[in-house]
Amino acid sequence: MIQAETERLLLSKITLKDASFFVELMNTPSFLKYVGDRYIKSQKDAREHIKNRFLKSYNTYGFGYYKLTLREQPNIPIGVVGILKREVMEHPDVGFALLPQYEKQGYGYEASVEMLKWAKEKFKIRRILAITDPDNGKSIKLLEKLGLTFEKRINPFDEDKELLLFAKDL
Predict the structure, then answer these.
(1) Please, which residues bridge with residue 131 across strands?
(2) Cα–Cα distance between 97 and 65 in angstroms, integer?
(3) Which residues contact 121 (CB under 8 A, 6 or more apart)?
């Protein structure tokens, strides 16, 4: 079910039927490098991840991550954008990921603008965060283009590497 439309994209809730897409997305070189290995190697793994993360978020908070498809190809997912409320973070954070062949075409920006609009208008979020790997220049550039500003380095997940925290008041 389509939740929103932009000039070129359709945003819809993620379902268990999207498992094969998530196996592909979460095993792309950039996802593995900058987000990390979520050990989603099969459709079964992906369905469990979708159920425990995305569907749970919709039920708990009313928002989550949304699948992106092109308006002219609505059956082919190209990425995700969304808002998560993590226990380790004071405010919700925005995130995005695209299949490599759809990067550098403005889709991440277009979808994120819509997501920030939803955050403010639909979900009444007043402050949005974002976290990214310090080496992920594309993500940093997009966050800055969206108006988020760097605040500090953090280690919210007690991992070896610190992340950059960006924020914006909505």
Answers:
(1) 165
(2) 10
(3) none
Strand order from edge to edge, sheet including 9-13: 2-5, 9-13, 65-70, 73-84, 93-98, 127-132, 163-169, 149-154
| Residues 149, 72: Cα–Cα separation, whole Å | 34
pLDDT digits (tens, 9 = 90+) for 1-18: 778 999 999 999 999 999
> How crowded is residue 80: how many other Cβ atoms within 10 Å of its Cβ?
25
Q: Going by C-beta distance under 8 Å and a sequence separation of 6 or more, which residues neighbour residue 105?
A: none
DSSP character at residue 87: T
For 32-73, what is each residue's pLDDT tens digit?
A: 999 988 999 999 999 999 999 999 999 999 999 999 999 999
Half-sphere exposure of 120 (CA within 13 A, CB side): 8
